[in-house]
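Supplementary Note 3. Input sequence used for the single-chain structure prediction.
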Amino acid sequence: MKRISTIFAVLAVVVMLATACGPAATTVAPAPPTAVPPTAVPPTAVPPTAVPFRVGFVTDTGGIADKSFNQTQWEGILRATTDFGIQSKYIQSTEASQYTPNLTEFASQGYDLVIASGFFLAGDLAKVAAQYPNVKFSIVDSAYPDAFDVPEGTVGHGECIPNVMGQVYKTDQAAYLAGYLAAGMTKTGKIAYYGGAKIPSVTIFGVGFQMGMNAYNAAHGTNVVLLGWDNMTGDGVFTGDFGDLVKAKQTATSLYDEGADIVMGVGGLIGSPSFALARERGGYGIWVDTDGFIRWPDDHDIMLTSIMKMMDQSQYDLIKNTMAGNFAGCTNYIGDMANGGVGIADYHDLASKVPDALKAEIAALKAKIISGELKDTGCISYPNSCPGGLYTP
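The predicted structure, written as discrete structure tokens, is reproduced below.
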């Protein structure tokens, strides 16, 4: 019996050992999930970037910061840049030989509108505009046809240019009022003018200035004299450029030495040396193109008035109209007193110095110019000293 129990015990151990040494249970890994291809989403269409309207501005040698001619135009372009979301760029010309390449740089890049700052660029613009008939151009203080600047045989000499619009101003109207004012304010009986270069857009200031002075003399029986310009001869005093302030000071000094106490320099910065001289000599200064009271804050005490050409507004309007598809080649914008294109500045700090009677006379003359009652403020009598395209015969 004991022996049987032993046998069963041994058998139990064998079974346990066999079970322990048997193969391990097989673990079956789950099948990887079937990859589901993503749903195809068509790419979002990206609209092409709109090309902005581009305006290029080429200065004359007076420079972009002349506080007068070029700067006034550029400020109008900058205002349009902000208001209309366009792109604008200027190129400053330091010498005349740069006019053609500077204009060409903008035209060759396909700018929508290229603006030449003034009279000196007229011949160069005519050549470039003919080479780029699909580009729109404009020029200040000049109009085509222009036999003076454009060689015979070149488009623009005897005809208008289809892709160019001129901008000209009846500056003699505003200068007439300034001349009347100066004649009424002088203590020495002598007022004076000098210019940068002898070109129509400069001499027109002298034309109107003298006519206004003559009108004052006729009305008051006085004999105020103008130094530096003569309508009858069409000649006067000029420094020869728009940048030589040393020469400008020498010129202004000579006019004060001759007895003038109100001196007007026409040509951007070359007019500024007369202000310190006016203070030293007890006289007044007159600025041109824009309001000198704003441009020259240190000279408020001697700034009698300014002969203004609203070139900032005309550039702004030009850009606005061109963007609207209303560019008109072979036409000219003509700024006059009636449409606000020219005017004289407020008397500002010197208002108390100007007699009320004189103010009233000037206001009455201004009204007559605007109404058309006063037609000849200089350029009708002396057209050769004024830009073409201003007055019809």
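The chain is about 35% helix and 15% strand. The two ends are 156 Å apart (CA to CA).
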